[in-house]
């Protein structure tokens, strides 16, 4: 493993106890590419309200893992709004979020230009096949070192070891993981020490870029209404997430703003009341 000095991660702010980085597509892409070239492991999670709330409600599990990622990006607009709400003097105002699907494309573009190969882990074989076709059409010079569609069950130790060995032997410089939240973050957290490359948790990006899931219209994205677009597509599956969890997130952000957010068990070195990383 290369021991040279690594690029510094962007600054961080606590939002309901989860440390989210004040970063941009450019900063995050640079960090990933530089780590890839150094064969250095790092973990990146594109985090929306759903993931934030999972972290808040499960501080010793999902919350702890997120707070130990190299970079947690503000995927959802409400997360970006909270970062700007808690902005301190001298900190930059975030004019854009860092979405998993868009970050994946930007990283692939840079990887193709700089000769860094990628690996895809997650989803179904059919979607992975289509995803590889779409990515190589968009980025002809992109080298895809391999792809794995793991079974939708707990892996045996032997299966897990074989998959890790396949990824390592592929020589891939960047690993994209599309297992859905919180499974993908748990996988990245537990495997980062075994892989000498950046691991990016990108959620539904595989399905979107394979052409299986439509993205919300730009106007709905701008006003933070992606949740409504997805809810209209899958109301039975998503009603609890969007009609119960999202309002609770807004309440918790308001409580943090007025410094009355209930303290929970310590998750990491974060002061939940004041938004400071300590």
Automatic annotation (TrEMBL):
InterPro entries: WecG_TagA_CpsF (IPR004629)
Keywords: Glycosyltransferase, Membrane, Transferase, Transmembrane, Transmembrane helix
Claim: Transmembrane helix is one of the keywords in the record: yes
Molecular function via GO: hexosyltransferase activity
Domain of life according to the entry: Bacteria
Transmembrane segments: 242-261
NCBIfam families assigned to the protein according to its UniProt record, in alphabetical order: wecG_tagA_cpsF
Protein name: Glycosyl transferase WecB/TagA/CpsF family
Origin species: Coleofasciculus chthonoplastes PCC 7420
């Amino acid at each position: 493993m290369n021991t040279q000095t690594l690029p510094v991660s962007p600054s961080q702010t606590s939002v309901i106890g989860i440390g989210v980085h004040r970063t941009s597509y450019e900063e995050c892409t640079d960090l990933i590419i530089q780590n890839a070239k150094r064969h250095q492991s790092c973990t990146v999670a594109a985090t929306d309200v759903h993931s934030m709330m999972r972290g808040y409600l499960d501080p010793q599990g999902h919350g702890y893992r997120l707070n130990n990622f190299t970079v947690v990006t503000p995927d959802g607009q409400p997360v970006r709004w909270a970062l700007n709400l808690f902005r301190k003097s001298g900190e930059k105002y975030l004019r854009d979020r860092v979405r998993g699907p868009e970050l994946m494309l930007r990283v692939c573009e840079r990887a193709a230009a700089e000769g860094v190969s990628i690996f895809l882990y997650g989803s179904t074989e059919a979607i992975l096949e289509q995803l590889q076709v779409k990515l190589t059409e968009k980025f002809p010079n992109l080298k895809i070192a391999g792809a794995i569609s793991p079974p939708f069950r707990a892996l045996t130790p032997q299966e897990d070891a074989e998959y890790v060995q396949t990824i390592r032997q592929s020589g891939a410089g960047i690993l994209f993981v599309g297992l859905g939240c919180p499974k993908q973050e748990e996988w990245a957290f537990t495997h980062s020490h075994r892989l000498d490359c950046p691991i990016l948790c990108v959620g539904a990006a595989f399905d979107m870029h394979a052409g299986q899931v439509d993205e919300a219209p730009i106007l709905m994205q701008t006003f933070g209404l992606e949740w409504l677009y997805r809810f209209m597509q899958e109301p039975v599956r998503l009603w609890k997430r969007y009609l119960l969890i999202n309002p609770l997130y807004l309440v918790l952000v308001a409580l943090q703003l007025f410094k009355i957010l209930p303290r929970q068990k310590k998750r990491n070195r974060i002061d939940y009341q004041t938004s400071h990383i300590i």
